[in-house]
Amino acid sequence: MQNIDDKELVDLFKQGVNGNAAGFALLGRRIASKLKKDGDPVAERLADLLAAPDSAKPARLVSRKNVSPVDSDSRASLVSEQIKFNFPNDIFWDEQVDAGLNSIIEERNSSKKLISAGLEPVSKVIFTGPPGVGKTFAASWLASKLSLPLVTLDLSTVMSSLLGKTGANIKSVFEYSTSFPCVLFLDEFDAVAKKRDDDKDIGELKRLVNVLLQSIDRWPHQSILVAATNHPELLDRAVWRRFDKLINFQNPGKDIVLKILKSKGVSEKIAGKISPLLTGKSFSDIEKICQQAMKKHVLHEHAYDDAILGVLICELGDLELRNKRIKEVVAQGVSRRKVAEVTGMSHPTVTKIINAEG
């Protein structure tokens, strides 16, 4: 250990005695990296310890040091936890999201190798994108792939109108979720990490964001912090540099919509005709349309293709939108006779709608 000086060892012990897990891990990785360069065999053993082998265990076997945090007044739980996950065989990420999520898995599974080189695996990720594009689903998927429990902050319970209470609740959630390897999911992150330039209640807002930033800074690399927001423009500037990785989720494009429809049982012919009309819709919107169609298929014994055409045209909007949809599906190659059949309208009425201006 000729390259390790006394000051590094003293600093390492200070971090341990003071209970600063993040500082201890950081100094430990530096020492392990130096030992590896010296060819010292103990370097690999240190890397094993710092790589948090507990995180590779099934979620149900991970031990917890604290009880689940609750609001001191209502006694309601501040978090929800999930250890069992069920995912469909086909998951339709776009290429950018797929690459980003799989790079996280790769780094976490190779944490020992990274730590031996004095590097940290990604541990703090922020998801951005509109509602219904799969941010919550992706957090669950990561937890499942890494065999970690998913701890989700309950924003409705955490937020309080009482001075200082929200910050105390946030602190409790972080103290709990850093006591064992997990994925902590902070949905609607902009609600607690809002820019500190609002003239209203600026003092309390500053205190809350400061508590949050301090908690993020102490986040241990053994776990993953996932924050999600529909409004990235609202986040405080200081928040962004605390995260290792940004993944931007978007509504599915035409090719992915086509794959989703076919996976739901829509024929290739009809899926090809209606996928352009659903491009720009969220994953959750497309899922709702398919579910409504399946209900019509089951309850009224309509052919599934006819059911999804009927739902797309008639059941998702007002009369003006219905007429617009009729024109759109006909423009995509659906016959007027088929439109009349699935909507229960007469053929002349459909023709009248198509020929109408506007």
Automatic annotation (TrEMBL):
Q: Which SUPFAM superfamilies match?
A: P-loop containing nucleoside triphosphate hydrolases (SSF52540)
Q: Which InterPro entries match?
A: 26S_Proteasome_ATPase (IPR050221), AAA+_ATPase (IPR003593), ATPase_AAA_core (IPR003959), P-loop_NTPase (IPR027417)
Query: Carries keyword Protein biosynthesis?
Result: no
Residues in AAA+ ATPase domain copies: 121-253
Record key words, sorted: ATP-binding, Nucleotide-binding
GO MF term set: ATP binding; ATP hydrolysis activity
Q: Which Gene3D superfamilies match?
A: P-loop containing nucleotide triphosphate hydrolases
| Record family assignment | Belongs to the AAA ATPase family.
- By what name is this protein known? ATP-binding protein
Protein species of origin: Vreelandella salicampi
